[in-house]
Structures are given as C-alpha cells and as structure tokens.
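User: Please fill in residues for this 301-position structure.
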C-alpha cells in the first residue's frame, strides 16, 4: 500500500489516494519519516530490522530445513544474543518454516529363515567413543526412471554418516558398498570391539555381507523381528534425509540427481547440521572435541 502511494502521489496527491485506500495520511507520513530516519523508530523495530536478514541467511545456508529452535541455536553459536521467541516471531513474519518428518516406511524385508546374530544393542543407541557402534539401514526414493535405494551407515557416538551408497537395486551388493566406504573412511582396528547393528533385512544377513564383517573384525548385531525400535537411530537418520532432501526437493528425475543431492546433504549433515542429542553441535565437531579431550588427557598424564 505504501509503495502504491509512492508510485502515484505525484499524479494524484497523498490525501486523495488515502481517502480511497484504508489508510490515514498521518500513518503514511509517519512511515515515510521512520524510513528516512530509522533511528527514530522503537528499539525493538530497529533490532528486528537487523535480525531479519541474519535469520534468513542462517535459514538459507542450512538448506532451508531449520525450524526456530535450530536457527536460534545456530545464531547463538555465531554470537547473537537473541531470544528463541524472537526468532520464532521473525521467522513467521518472513514465512520461513522448517521441515517436518513424515511417517517411517519400512523398506527392508525380514529374513526369518537366515541364521541371525544376537542383538548386542537392545535399543541402547549410545556409544562412549567413535568406532564403538555403527548402525545401518536403507530407504527408497521414487524417481521418473523408477525406484532407487539409498543406504547409510552411521557412527552412533556423534551420529556421523560414515558410509552411504545409492543404487537402482536393493541387492546385498549395494549395502556392501556402503560398508566398504565406511571401512575405508574410518579404518577401524580389527577386533577392537566395534559393533555393526542392523535390522533383519536379507541384505544385511547375506553371506557376502556377514563375511565382510568378519574379515574386518566387526561384531555383528541384529535387531529383533517385527520390532519398530530395533534400529531406531538409523531409521531416524533416514527420516531426516527423506524430510530434508527427498520430500522437499523432489520430484526426482534420475538416480544421478538423487546421488548428487545426497552427497551435498551428507557433507552438510556431518560438518554443519546441529544435532540436539549431541549438544546442538555438528557430528564432526563432536568427534573433534572428543579427540581433543583425549589428547589433553594424554598430555596431562
């Protein structure tokens, strides 16, 4: 409305326009005066004007998936002294809204006939250090060329994604590729007690997969059949991935498009995404803090 008056005031005058529009001339002149002299506005209005672009920047820099809580946490990390309710109010004013996870869709098919390792985790998805417990799962993505499948391996200590793979088929080979990537990236010591946990999907109970776990010195662990919580942490990461990438950026034309988007998301997730269960810091930072504390302890000793 203010812009309309500005565009036509020279031709018709402010007062005649305001008689037609639902705005008083005094309101218009007050708005123009404050725009020319912003220092005369209320302190809250001045601060809001500073915070709005910063909030939008943080929102956009984090794939436009953060809600008010995560935006507030990130701005605190950057040194902004601002209340969470202020972030929520200004995000609402700008139409900024974080993503929400949908319902879990089960993709692995339990193999009740295959020999099954016992459950060494029992829903206790916590680890005292990196390379103590890995969890694995995969999900599916619908593309114009058909379904593709995405597997993840997560180190439980900091929720870091240590291996992933995208494939056109859900055969055992593609989850094995994700395992190989994790082994190459983390290089765990054979026989160190690292537990690899999955649900009872046929891919994870295949001969090739179980043999590779044995060759690498990892201890297999498989959740109970029909238990929706048997691999809850891996399913949580799948849920974040579907909400923050697949549902928000689709529809997907090809496997290549999904693979590239997954690459970008995994890098951001590991290095920048704030995770509440580890203290609202990124996974890479949590691991760096652990090793720094370990080094300090060794020096002190």
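Assistant: Residues filled in for all 301 positions:
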């Amino acid at each position: 409305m203010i812009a309309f008056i500005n565009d036509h005031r020279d031709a018709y005058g402010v007062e005649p326009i305001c008689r037609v529009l639902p705005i008083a001339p005094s309101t218009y002149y007050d708005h123009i005066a404050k725009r020319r002299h912003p220092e005369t506005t209320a302190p809250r209005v001045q601060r809001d004007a500073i915070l709005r672009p910063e909030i939008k920047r943080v929102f956009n820099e984090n794939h436009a998936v953060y809600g008010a809580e995560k935006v507030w946490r990130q701005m605190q990390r950057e040194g902004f002294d601002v209340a969470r309710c202020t972030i929520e109010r200004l995000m609402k004013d700008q139409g900024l809204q974080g993503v929400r996870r949908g319902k879990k869709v089960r993709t692995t098919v339990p193999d009740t006939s295959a020999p099954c390792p016992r459950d060494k985790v029992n829903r206790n998805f916590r680890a005292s250090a990196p390379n103590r417990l890995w969890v694995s799962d995969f999900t599916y993505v619908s593309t114009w060329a058909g379904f593709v499948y995405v597997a993840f391996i997560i180190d439980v200590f900091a929720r870091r994604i240590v291996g992933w793979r995208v494939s056109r088929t859900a055969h055992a080979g593609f989850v094995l590729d994700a395992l190989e990537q994790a082994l190459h990236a983390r290089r765990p010591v054979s026989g160190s007690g690292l537990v690899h946990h999955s649900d009872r999907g046929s891919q994870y109970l295949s001969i090739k997969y179980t043999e590779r776990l044995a060759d690498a010195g990892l201890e297999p662990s498989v959740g109970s059949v029909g238990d929706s919580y048997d691999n809850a942490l891996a399913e949580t990461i799948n849920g974040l991935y579907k909400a923050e990438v697949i549902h928000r950026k689709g529809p997907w034309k090809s496997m290549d498009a999904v693979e590239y988007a997954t690459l970008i998301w995994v890098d951001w997730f590991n290095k920048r995404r704030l995770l509440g269960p580890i203290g609202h810091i990124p996974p890479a930072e949590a691991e760096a803090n652990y090793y720094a504390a370990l080094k300090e302890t060794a020096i002190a000793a």
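For context: Residues 43-61 form the longest helix (19 residues).
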